[in-house]
Write a structure and sequence with these properties.
By secondary structure, this protein is of the alpha+beta class. It is 49% helix and 9% strand.
């Protein structure tokens, strides 16, 4: 009888400890989510203040501000639906991308770009346009430039789209849009990337690496901020599909020309 009583006492203690542990874990998760949401909302509020206080003066600044407004709306929707710290972090990434569009709009209007914005996932590894180029691809001219102009009014802050890099810069058209919408690159994307960026000092990828989706920095354990930039944090207005890419965007609407999908 004494032995049975002792076993019951031990079992009761074990059950009690397990329940307390689960409660602590639940409390920690709730705290982490609240902290992540608060952090994201700071970036979203900062973006909203800029969106409502700026008016574009040319095509480049108006396009950048339209993109920033879409990021603001998307981030607000994401944070309202966020149920985990990871989802809240994705909302913050969307807002941060919007802030890069704000900086781009200010630069296009010859204004001070404002305070620095934290790096986006995969942004540093993707590189940046460092020289003006214009290439012919599938019967049309596509231009890239480190600065805005009437020829290159479409800005991208840099990062990974559908697992492959898109360097930061100004472009004549959003050539990354088909991959953003479809979640995969077309057959001609490697040729376009190679033609556009071959030998450019600010872009650390070659065509073969682009085709494979490989990232030499990640292979050497040097990914941005210690995060695998595979498909994380790529935004362009709309909703995440679970891999970091989006299903919609601005940049003048869906771009559906020239790529083979």
């Amino acid at each position: 009888m004494t032995t049975i009583l002792l076993i019951l006492v031990v079992l009761a203690v074990v059950v009690f400890l397990v329940m307390k542990s689960q409660q602590r874990g639940s409390g920690n998760s709730a705290t982490q989510l609240d902290d992540a949401k608060a952090d994201a909302r700071q970036a979203i509020e900062r973006l909203g203040g800029q969106v409502y206080n700026l008016t574009g003066s040319d095509d480049a600044s108006r396009q950048a501000l339209a993109d920033a407004a879409e990021r603001y709306n998307a981030a607000g929707s994401q944070i309202d639906q966020a149920a985990t710290p990871v989802q809240a972090r994705l909302a913050k990434q969307t807002a941060l991308e919007g802030l890069y569009y704000i900086r781009a709009a200010r630069v296009a209007m010859c204004m001070d770009p404002g305070p620095d914005v934290p790096s986006l996932d995969g942004q540093k590894a993707a590189g940046a346009v460092t020289e003006a180029r214009e290439v012919e691809f599938e019967g049309r001219e596509i231009a890239a430039s480190p600065t805005p102009s009437s020829r290159t009014p479409n800005y991208y802050p840099g990062g990974r789209v559908a697992g492959r890099p898109v360097p930061a810069g100004w472009y004549s058209e959003p050539w990354w849009k088909p991959a953003l919408v479809a979640g995969a690159w077309g057959l001609g994307s490697m040729m376009l990337f190679s033609t556009m960026f071959s030998g450019m000092s600010g872009v650390p990828y070659d065509a073969n690496a682009f085709e494979a989706g490989g990232d030499p920095n990640v292979d050497q354990g040097m990914s941005d901020q210690g995060v695998d930039p595979g498909d994380q944090g790529n935004t362009d207005g709309g909703n995440y599909d679970g891999g970091g890419s989006y299903d919609g965007g601005s940049d003048g609407g869906f771009f559906d020309g020239g790529m083979d999908f």
